[in-house]
Amino acid sequence: MAADIYYPGQGTLAEEKYLEGEAEGSAKGMARGKAEALLIFLEQRQIPIPDTARDRISACTDLDTLDRWLAQALTVAHADDLFAHAPDHQE
Length: 91
Description:
This protein is mainly α. It has helices at about 15-45, 50-60, 65-70.
């Protein structure tokens, strides 16, 4: 009687779903970290952050958008200025 032996990388459905979940969790963690860094950076610059802006930043899961906002945070005078030229893609 041969025992079934599992080797990683066999491409089973369970393995694919596990890896998808792991990648999704990693992306969510990265987005959360960038959003928190952005809020801290604005606070350190003593830029007031209205609740609507804080909520929008915290809810954003798009890494490209968060990167753009982080870059803009160097020069904006108001937190809402981050959203002035938002592209059409989801935040």
